[in-house]
Backbone:
């Protein structure tokens, strides 16, 4: 569903602002997932030569960067819509107009 049109007042966030918001949200979620995945990996296989903190940090950085990148791009693509698409969406989801069919009254012929 496209975003609702602005009804006067202030302008909405720019595409750059949307990119930054998406990247921040994606980076945060990715870092948390990297922390979980890195911790599980350290528990299962050990820290190796890098140590515990560096191993978990590498997982957090890699996961946060990747997910933040795709979330930032996706948020811009998702909210960037053209007026033609908004009009097509509005026409497809408007209330249907019900019109009764009007027929002229014609009496039935009698079979006498």
Residues:
């Amino acid at each position: 569903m496209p975003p609702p049109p602005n009804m006067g007042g202030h302008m909405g966030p720019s595409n750059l602002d949307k990119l930054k918001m998406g990247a921040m949200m994606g980076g945060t979620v990715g870092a948390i997932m990297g922390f979980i995945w890195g911790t599980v990996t350290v528990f299962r296989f050990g820290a190796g030569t890098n140590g515990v903190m560096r191993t978990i940090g590498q997982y957090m950085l890699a996961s946060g960067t990747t997910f933040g990148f795709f979330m930032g791009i996706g948020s811009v693509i998702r909210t960037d819509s053209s007026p033609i698409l908004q009009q097509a969406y509005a026409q497809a989801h408007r209330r249907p107009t019900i019109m009764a069919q009007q027929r002229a009254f014609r009496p039935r012929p009698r079979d006498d």
